[in-house]
Structure prediction request, 379 residues.
Amino acid sequence: MAFIEMKDIVKTYGSSVVLHGVSLSMEKGQVVSIIGPSGAGKSTFLRCLNHLEIIQKGSICINGQYLARMDAEGNSVYAPEKEMRKICLNMGMVFQNYAIFPHMSVRDNVAFGLKNRKVPQDQIESQVDEILKVVKIDHLKKRMPSKLSGGQQQRVALARAIVIHPEVLLMDEPLSNLDAKLRVEMRNAIKRIQQQVGITTIYVTHDQEEALAVSDRIAVMNGGVIQQIDTPKNVYQRPSNIFVSTFIGLSNIMDGRIEARDGQTLLHIGDYSVPMENLSRSAQDGQAVKVSIRPEEFIISREDSGGIPAVVRSSVFLGITTHYFVETADGREMEVIQNSDIWDIIPDHTPIRLGVQPHKINVFTEDGSQSLIVRRDHS
Ligand code: ADP
Prediction:
């Protein structure tokens, strides 16, 4: 059994179902991010794990100990109060609003959980010192929270959560109150600390870059359902449906049609035809599909060399890359990102062709609910 096993979790508030049978299993030491739009159910799911929310159906097991089991009907039966408290005491939590005590110094804030656990005084001192070094605020030990910056306060919250050596660390949008630069700095710090201390961590965020940066795996959630759980690379390169494809990164979505003939499969996007070698067998001759191509996967050509015909409408030079906003012959607006060539930004109104390498294309059923690509996993 995995270190964390959450199975078929159903959570309702009155008559509204917020989690529709969500499952997640994690190995010890892993970091899984839960990402999705606001209202997707991310926080609720996280809070089920340490009993801040009560589930109606499903089971939760951490390190072989059941917080909740399923009875014959799948309804959740919680462990006795004392056992639950023991399990939950082994979890640290960091929220977006830090929740550090304003009337206590950095040292006292971090020592709080240790005191509660009746750790001897001399050990408290050395453990506090050690963890403050890890989060790089050891020089601020005597400061009061009001004299700390947002990033420093967040480090105190993090230190306080990990000083108790929790088995599981739960983080709910821990960086969303920080400015963009500090967020990047802190997410790198979190990644480094995580690698150093190796706590099994679930990290809720709505920021996809943050999720890509800190996680071993990403769970993309929408409407109380995990749409895909996979490595950051797979979620980005091989999304399992159109929601994931458009939620993580930018995607251009087009209509396509499959032609399967004489053992060869072609994908038609308007007049452009691409031979495909990785379509699933369920893709039928004549089937209408949705095609998804990342802006950076297009290859712009100014010659009539095959590809989707389009016209450059405008462009934005962003240093390393230039973004082109183009319009295809059928009136579809698309975004194309190319590495910048300072000598040559393609002028507006230029007719172009958009080519793409077949293996960079994602193909979905027409309703967008399923990928028609057979994945070759290298991860
Ligand atoms: P997220 O973290 O993805 O933004 P939440 O887990 O906070 O989403 O919320 C999921 C859904 O549950 C939302 O529709 C929200 O309105 C609803 N919800 C959350 N908490 C409560 C509550 N205490 N009572 C009723 N509905 C709630």
Q: What stands out?
A: The chain has a mean pLDDT of 92. The radius of gyration is 25 Å. Residues 35 and 207 are 7 Å apart (CA to CA).
